[in-house]
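Hi C.,

You asked whether I'd gotten around to modeling the 693-residue construct. I have! Everything is below, sequence then structure, no commentary in between.
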Amino acid sequence: MKCKLLYFILFFWVYSSAQQKLIDSLSEQLKLYPDNSIEKLTLLNDLCYYYNNIQPKEGLLFCDKAINLAKKLESKEQLALAYKFKGVNYYALANTAAALKMYDSAIEIQKTFNDEKALAKTIYNKGLVYFNASDYKESNHNYREAYIIFEKEKDSFLMAKMLNSIAINQMYQVKYPEAIKTFNEAAIIYENLNKQNDFEYGSIQANLGLLYKRLDKFDQAIAQQEKALLIYQRQGNLYGQANALSNLGNCYDSKGNSLKAIEYYKESNKLNERIGNTLLEANNHTNTGIAYISLKRFDDAIENLEQAISNYKKIGNTTNLAIANENLGTCYREKYKVNPQSSFVKKATTYFNNALVEAKSVNNILVQQQALEGLSWTSSKLNDFKKAFQQKERATVLKDSFLSLEKMEAFAKMEAQFTFEKKEALLKAAYSKEQALAKAQMQRQKIIKNGTIVGGLSLSFLSIIGFVLYKKRQEAVFKTKEAQFSTEVAQTELKALRAQINPHFIFNSLNSIGDYIIKNDIHSASDYLSKFAKLIREILQNSEKKNVLLSEDISVLKMYLDIENKRFDRKFLYTFDISDTIDANNVLVPPLIIQPFIENSIKHGLAKNESDGHIKITIDKKGDALHYIVDDNGVGRNVTAVKSNNRTSLGIKITENRINILNRTNNIKGSVKIMDKEKGVRVEVYLPLLYAS
């Protein structure tokens, strides 16, 4: 899933958007006043803020001048403002720590004089910094603190602004029902104030539209954005119009109408060029590039993504720069699939690497994971399969780190869906009741009519029954055989699943977790539980698939080995030796086909071994076959035959049955060989070499 850029409207308290002309005008006015005048200090503070949109580093220089002059003139109000605007410039440079420090300095001064609203606005700006750093909990703490002050001051207008921002945080925290409620509370305040044509009210509609988009309710999302656009057009607010047009493009792209989406992005950028909104212009180029990729218009995509990258570099937006680079890498990857040229692989590698470095610097896990997936693909195309596998493993680890958030979002969507459906049901109830009576009467008339028709057709129907029954008898014989084979497949799959998560393994794992808790080793207990839960989830997910990628299967096997190794107190080591001729990201295998043999090696070989144990899993290619070797240095089968013959036979039988089914369904010759060594056991499994693409 591609990371499209959305544009929420938050209210950053200072002044409205500034142009270079205004800065030039203020600079000229600055020359008219004496160095130590309050007028000059006021102008310095104005310049402090206005520079944050275009040259925040220059803005910091004016802030320092304003701070020094405010201290000299002993003006607390202007000193607090200078610290606040310095925070704004640090915020523009994405320097979170410095921005928070400046806001704290401003707040400390503002608490000493009687201007509660000014204090609340600075607290709100502090919340914006936390929002930008993805600390939504702390961000909302500041927003609510500001809200309480505005409520105390009986300023409903500013209370509504706080609610808008709180709702956005709730949305990022995947609290969708709460977010909808909060957005509506803000909208009601504006309606009571008769401000339905204000920018702020339009912004509530636009933000609600983005929430509906997250819930995949695209028609409602589009309706909200169109409502917002109409309000902005009445006001003549170009900034709001550009924002709504961009979000409309995003909605249509998600709905599958990429061409219409591109039209909206272009309309938005016509306005962005007029008002100098470089960030939204770059976002539109990124989203346009993503849309062109889906249309396989790769040259157009490259042009837009390169323009976006250029803009992000100008304004120093590393987060979005990483997203644009990752999409440009994806574009060259998809272009290669249509027209295989080695130069496309090299370019894809460059852009994926750029994205990875940038995403790491801003701790964007999703883009890191996508970039590593891309690099794994390019490495495999360059025949560096070992590196490809390592990159795939790193991507899998990162994917797992945000998987729980995706599940939270899925649950939140279901909860919100339930809320919508409940409301919809109530609205439809009265109408349905009226329709039911009319429908019942119509049905009665239909039954009477159909009875007459059926009577006329019954003789014709009886004349063909004999033929149908004969044909069905023949089909039944075939279906019985087919059902018997399907039952055998299902039973074997179930037995394989039971073998992989047998009760003994679950019981022993839970016992180990319990032991850690008793010993008060919370870290080990948490680590073990996390790995155990992840393993069970992967096994259950893969059990629904006939084949999985070899790289994914190895990842699950490693999880299983790590858990067992921890349970047996690091009594053995394991290694995977994957041939350079194998592309683990493109080879398909039945899930966990060799797991029973690894389990037997651990339990019946290595667990009883007095010396350090070792399991070596080798995977290579033999002609058209995939060749597994599971080799251990345990006590061997002869020592454990009496005690564990049943368990060993079960593991072998399950795998042999699975391979027999593969042989019958695919007309292939897979096999299992078990060899006793002087010390340990060697198992060889041969499977057909299948490719994903």
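If it helps when you're writing up: Residues 385-500 form the longest helix (116 residues).

Thanks,
B.
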